[in-house]
Write a structure and sequence with these properties.
Helix content is 49%, strand content 10%. The chain is mainly alpha-helical. It has one domain (7-112). The strands form 2 sheets. It has a two-stranded antiparallel sheet. Strands 2-3 form a two-stranded antiparallel sheet. Strand 2 (59-60) and strand 3 form a beta hairpin.
């Protein structure tokens, strides 16, 4: 007897520290009310909690870059629903059109755009 895949499991993404930082960096600051509520919820799930910051040695350097202990850091499963996926895809496409994508966004592009 196989296990049924729930919508939550289907929409769950296993994200590294780098993935989470890249997604946080591209989430829009403005949008429709519905999109902004979805973005706020997604931000909550992507943001690092104190335990992660301490145990993984996550620190922001004076130049704005972020460093962490890659040996200690763990991936996190994050639920990303359809509306949130659409927001991410729209933002990635806008950034691509305006030549604003950085190397940190390529794995996110591959995961959300090329995967379709």
């Amino acid at each position: 007897m196989g296990t049924k895949r729930t919508p939550a499991a289907k929409n769950a993404e296993t994200l590294s520290v780098a993935d989470r930082l890249a997604l946080l960096s591209l989430l829009p600051e403005k949008g429709s009310l519905i999109h902004m509520r979805v973005v706020a919820d997604l931000r909550t799930h992507l943001t690092f909690v104190e335990k992660e910051l301490k145990e993984w040695g996550i620190v922001q350097l004076p130049d704005g870059s972020v460093r962490w202990d890659k040996q200690k850091a763990k991936n996190k499963k994050v639920e990303i629903g359809n509306v949130a996926r659409d927001v991410i895809k729209e933002r990635l496409r806008d950034m691509d059109k305006n030549k604003q994508l950085g190397p940190e966004h390529v794995p996110i592009w591959d995961r959300f755009i090329d995967k379709d």
